């Protein structure tokens, strides 16, 4: 879609606090077909609220199955959101020039949050709802550490103890994320650990395993289920997590209008568990269902290609089979991906809602090798001055491929939006490995 935006000089669209979304968008209200229900891991029957009560507060259980189009954001959550929201939408003019493209490239930057990623959008909400029901402890898993750090930050904001199982490969390669979690008061364990029955079984099977998100989920769920004072908190995959992230896309739609843009031609987001992609894409899918024509592309690592190579079927979200069965694109609950640096994308399955919209043909997908992703990340950093999280470099790689297809006068090509889920300041050892040619 051509636009007069290319003739302007605006680089950064900043919404006033008064324009921050006051409601989350629930895509389930607008889908042409409802998604398949989650199933009980034992009975294989659709889950009821009582089945999830040992793990989640009732408010989140209700959001998991909500059908209303918008869910109001509690004022206490909005108050903390205002520390960094609305987040900026930035026109990547220097990148456009470096590429020699006619495309107009924008990135929605979530790295301005207190922990440097999009994860607090749901961590704050989950901590709030748990605190409101008197919960004093939360357990969780984390890959790269963005989620664990976000929940640790949110937990201290609402007076909740947080215990984290971090995938061993990331625990060892990303010590600063662990330090950040501990600074906020969380306790952190490498997963699999000898602290849980499921962890001990995994170590007995493979003492040298690098771990996986599925393994860490099993440990965190086991501890929460066995402690009446604790609940489990998940940083991606589930419907209520995707719901909380939609503040990203809702802001981006308003900010594109500030640039004189309508619906973008292309939108690229990285995809691991699916929450970042959902947060940016779901409001744009709503616009597509109403007549817009944005091509939405989920970009995942070739080392863990659930959307591009997985099967669309029911599967567990964890290795031990403690979680509900969810219909999703999956590589299998036992799949252990290579210990790539994009720890947040090393998940065997994809969020059921993201999987559902993919199955309905509402989004496309592609897979990118980690060296290609880091090459795109370095190119982006040199042009824009922002070092992207390794996860986000996948979305950037997909977008750069599309931008290079379009040459001609600056600003006359298609509009492209990239979801930049966070910064990579604590991932610099991974960039160093790439620069030195040491990545596999």
Automatic annotation (TrEMBL):
Keywords: Amino-acid biosynthesis, Aromatic amino acid biosynthesis, Lyase, Pyridoxal phosphate, Tryptophan biosynthesis
Pathway this chain belongs to: Amino-acid biosynthesis; L-tryptophan biosynthesis; L-tryptophan from chorismate: step 5/5
Regions that span the bilayer: none
rRNA-binding in keyword set: no
UniProt EC number: 4.2.1.20
Species the sequence originates in: Dietzia aerolata
UniProt function note: The beta subunit is responsible for the synthesis of L-tryptophan from indole and L-serine.
Higher taxonomy: Bacteria, Bacillati, Actinomycetota, Actinomycetes, Mycobacteriales
Stretches assigned to coiled coil: none
Entry cofactors: pyridoxal 5'-phosphate
Annotated Tryptophan synthase beta chain-like PALP domain residues: 83-407
Protein name, UniProt field: tryptophan synthase
Keyword check for Amino-acid biosynthesis: yes
Stated family: Belongs to the TrpB family.
Domain of life: Bacteria
Reaction it catalyzes: (1S,2R)-1-C-(indol-3-yl)glycerol 3-phosphate + L-serine = D-glyceraldehyde 3-phosphate + L-tryptophan + H2O
InterPro entries with a match to the protein in the record: Trp_synth_b-like (IPR006316), Trp_synth_beta/beta-like (IPR023026), TrpB-like_PALP (IPR001926), TrpB-like_PALP_sf (IPR036052)
Assembly: Tetramer of two alpha and two beta chains.
Pfam families noted in UniProt: PALP
């Amino acid at each position: 879609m051509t636009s007069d935006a290319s003739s302007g000089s605006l680089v950064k669209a900043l919404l006033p606090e008064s324009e921050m979304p006051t409601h989350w968008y629930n895509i389930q209200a607008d889908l042409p077909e409802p998604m398949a229900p989650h199933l009980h891991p034992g009975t294989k029957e659709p889950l009821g609220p009582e089945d999830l009560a040992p793990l989640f507060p009732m408010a989140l259980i209700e959001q998991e199955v909500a059908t209303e189009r918008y869910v109001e954001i509690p004022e206490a959550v909005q108050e903390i959101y205002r520390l960094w929201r609305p987040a900026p939408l930035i026109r990547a003019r220097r990148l456009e020039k470096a590429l020699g493209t006619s495309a107009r490239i924008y990135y929605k930057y979530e790295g301005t949050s207190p922990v440097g990623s999009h994860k607090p959008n749901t961590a704050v909400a989950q901590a709030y709802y748990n605190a409101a029901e008197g919960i004093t402890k939360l357990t969780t898993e984390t890959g790269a550490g963005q989620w664990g750090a976000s929940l640790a930050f949110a937990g201290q904001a609402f007076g909740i103890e947080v215990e984290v199982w971090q995938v061993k490969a990331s625990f060892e390669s990303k010590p600063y994320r662990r330090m950040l979690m501990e600074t906020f008061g969380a306790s952190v364990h490498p997963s699999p650990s000898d602290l849980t029955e499921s962890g001990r079984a995994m170590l007995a099977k493979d003492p040298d395993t690098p771990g996986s998100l599925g393994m860490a989920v099993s440990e965190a769920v086991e501890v929460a289920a066995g402690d009446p004072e604790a609940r489990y908190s998940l940083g991606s995959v589930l419907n209520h997590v995707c719901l909380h992230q939609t503040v990203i896309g809702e802001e981006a739609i308003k900010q594109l209008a500030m640039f004189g843009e309508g619906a973008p031609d292309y939108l690229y987001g990285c995809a691991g568990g699916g929450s970042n992609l959902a947060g940016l894409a779901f409001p744009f899918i709503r616009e597509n269902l109403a007549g817009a024509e944005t091509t939405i592309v989920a970009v995942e690592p070739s080392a863990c290609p659930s959307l591009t190579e997985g099967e669309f079927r029911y599967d567990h979200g964890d290795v031990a089979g403690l979680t509900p069965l969810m219909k999703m694109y999956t590589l299998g609950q036992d799949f252990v991906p290579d210990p790539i640096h994009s720890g947040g994308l090393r998940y065997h399955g994809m969020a059921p809602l993201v999987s559902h919209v993919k199955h309905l043909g509402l989004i496309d997908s592609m897979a990118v090798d980690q060296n290609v992703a880091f090459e795109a990340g370095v190119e982006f950093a040199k042009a824009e001055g922002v070092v992207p999280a390794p996860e986000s470099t996948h979305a950037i790689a997909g977008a750069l491929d599309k931008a290079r297809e379009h040459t001609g006068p600056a600003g006359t090509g298609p509009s492209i939006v990239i979801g930049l889920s966070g910064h990579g300041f604590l991932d610099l050892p991974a960039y160093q490995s790439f620069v030195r040619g040491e990545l596999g």
